[in-house]
């Protein structure tokens, strides 16, 4: 897996005095000491090894010298990890109900905050089960199938695009590309000025959002919602639907759709259009096929390859 860790055994010169003992995760019966950002965690080697291939391999070597001990335990200093991220993972390891803190109605911004550190550490140290748990929680809100997309739309999951934008760099950093197409799709709803001023996204991702907004609008116009935006009665229409179709959409409505294109939104209010049976069947079928096409093309719109590529990348 990319970005796998290589914790380093501490050098003897390191001064033990400089470490602060973590108030919650410094157990008197702990068997190893992990140092993160000058904070010492005295935890259980067997528990860490049980969850992490990287830590398991680390201790599969001869006993350390005396100088690598802290408080009588072997000491390992982690490099480049955030203290808060590591504390979150310790909570997962030592509190069996920790993931239950995420409630069904936890808002997405809080959910991303909750999961981010755990996902980073579990990815880096090859904690497969914990990483998979994080991914399943995120994928419940960021689907990688059209069925999943219909499910989140049907459940009325509330997305505030400017708040969930953090999922994009997180998914890139931790190799969870399956969530990216839907995340990008949602982020095309951020107003252009806000995208440009955004401090979370890289410029390349900003460009993908802006270009994606245009592509989705084109698809909404030509593939999924043509019957609303550019209606032409079907060739077998016998009752003149062209003449009877109410022209509800004003320029402002069209501008608003263009600003927040949503071609995957399922249209269900067919009766209100009062079309003939032939026209309604034709456009329902076009709408259904169009949504499937948009979903298939979603990754390529954001330069992510195909769904197959994405699935291979994530499982690699
Ligand atoms: Zn008709």
From TrEMBL:
Stretches assigned to the BTB domain: 30-95
Signal peptide: none
Gene3D superfamilies noted in UniProt: Potassium Channel Kv1.1, Chain A
CDD domains: BTB_POZ_ZBTB_KLHL-like
UniProt cross-references to Pfam families, sorted A to Z: BTB
PROSITE patterns reported in the protein's UniProt record: BTB
Domain of life: Eukaryota
Entry-linked SUPFAM superfamilies: POZ domain
Name used for this protein in its record: BTB domain-containing protein
């Amino acid at each position: 897996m990319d970005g796998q860790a290589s914790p380093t055994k501490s050098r003897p010169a390191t001064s033990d005095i400089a470490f602060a003992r973590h108030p919650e995760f410094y157990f008197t019966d702990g068997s190893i000491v992990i140092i993160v950002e000058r904070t010492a965690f005295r935890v259980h080697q067997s528990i860490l090894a049980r969850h992490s291939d990287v830590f398991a391999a680390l201790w599969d070597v001869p006993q350390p010298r005396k100088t690598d001990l802290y408080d009588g335990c072997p000491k390992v200093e982690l490099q480049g990890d955030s203290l808060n991220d590591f504390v979150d993972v310790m909570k997962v390891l030592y509190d069996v109900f920790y993931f239950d803190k995420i409630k069904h109605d936890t808002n997405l911004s809080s959910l991303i905050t909750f999961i981010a550190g755990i996902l980073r550490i579990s990815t880096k140290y090859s904690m497969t089960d914990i990483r998979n748990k994080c991914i399943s929680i995120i994928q419940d809100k960021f689907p990688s199938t059209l069925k999943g997309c219909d499910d989140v739309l049907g459940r009325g999951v509330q997305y505030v695009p400017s708040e969930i934008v953090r999922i994009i760099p997180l998914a890139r950093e931790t190799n969870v590309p399956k969530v990216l197409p839907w995340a990008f799709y949602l982020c095309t709803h951020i107003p252009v000025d806000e995208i440009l001023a955004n401090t979370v996204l890289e410029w390349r991702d900003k460009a993908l959002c802006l270009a994606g907004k245009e592509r989705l609008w084109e698809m909404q116009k030509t593939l999924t919602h043509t019957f609303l935006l550019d209606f032409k009665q079907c060739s077998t229409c016998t009752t003149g639907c062209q003449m009877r179709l109410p022209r509800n959409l004003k320029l402002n409505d069209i501008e608003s759709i263009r600003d927040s294109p949503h071609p995957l939104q399922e249209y269900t209010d067919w009766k209100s259009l009062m079309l003939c049976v032939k026209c309604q069947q034709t456009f329902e079928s076009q709408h259904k096929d169009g949504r499937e096409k948009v979903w298939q093309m979603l990754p390529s719109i954001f330069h992510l390859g195909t769904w197959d590529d994405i699935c291979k990348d994530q499982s690699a």
